[in-house]
Amino acid sequence: MNDRTRKSDSGGKGGRSKGRRGGKSGNWYERHVGDVHVRRAQDEGYRSRASYKLAEIDQRDALVRNGARVLELGAAPGGWTQYLVERVGPEGIVVASDLLEMDAIAGVEFVQGDFTEQATADRIEHAIGEAGADVVLSDMAPNLTGVASTDQARSMALAELAMDMACSVLKPGGGFVVKVFQGESFDTYVRSLRSHFQHVKVRKPEASRSRSREVYLVATEHR
Ligand SMILES: C[S@@+](CC[C@H](N)C(=O)[O-])C[C@H]1O[C@@H](n2cnc3c(N)ncnc32)[C@H](O)[C@@H]1O
User: Fold this and answer.
1) Nearest alpha carbon to residue 69 among 152, 17, 128
2) Domains of the chain
3) CA geometry: angle 183, 175, 218, nearest 5 deg
4) pLDDT digits (tens, 9 = 90+) for 46-82
5) Whole-prediction pTM value?
6) Are strands 214-222 and 197-203 parallel, antiparallel or unpaired?
7) Percent of the chain beyond pLDDT 90?
8) Ligand 1 centre and the CA of 220: distance in Å?
9) pLDDT the model gives residue 9
10) Ligand 1: residues whose CB is within 6 Å?
């Protein structure tokens, strides 16, 4: 594996910030509870509204097939994982990973650890095994500081590592979905993706809040 900026021991940070959006009095909380996708996720038993972003991408780009072997990075609390398990069915494999703990989902192998650490990457590669993956997805997002340039740089660092992992474990012809924040080095990242995949598309799912700078890159036909 190309290990660009991976750490070799523990101590890394990541995960979701409780800072700006943790208090129930803030605007974020009001937006969140009033959000149609949040209410729908609650009604339909999904752990997060994020399930609908993936569903929209998958329905458009037909990425996840019955029986597929899937690796998911940044999985907690598990909204995407729930969707993926349903899509791959009993013949498929889902390996999910996150810095945070995640309540178990039947049929999913979960690897907990900081993805920027080499030891975690090694455990993930071991879990996916020699047969490799048909699809790799990353919804990882760093702790948000509120400083756009910092958040974008941290997000891009995770996206770089996710691309390295995808290139390491994907079968030829496989697909990769990664969340990135638009800004500096976005174009460079897309160019790099294009050197590894035949097709690269930018997707902004309807369930992704429009003010957010997040987009998803959907890369298909791994070379
Ligand atoms: C937007 S959430 C993922 C939501 C998930 N897709 C869902 O549907 O429920 C982003 C996740 O990235 C994880 N994350 C951030 N930095 C990470 C790191 N260095 N290693 C592993 N996971 C990380 C966070 O812990 C968080 O759970």
Assistant:
1) 128
2) 49-222 (3.40.50.150)
3) 30
4) 888 899 999 999 999 999 999 999 999 999 999 999 9
5) 0.86
6) antiparallel
7) 69
8) 22
9) 47
10) 12, 14-16, 47-48, 50-51, 74-80, 98-100, 114-116, 139-142, 158
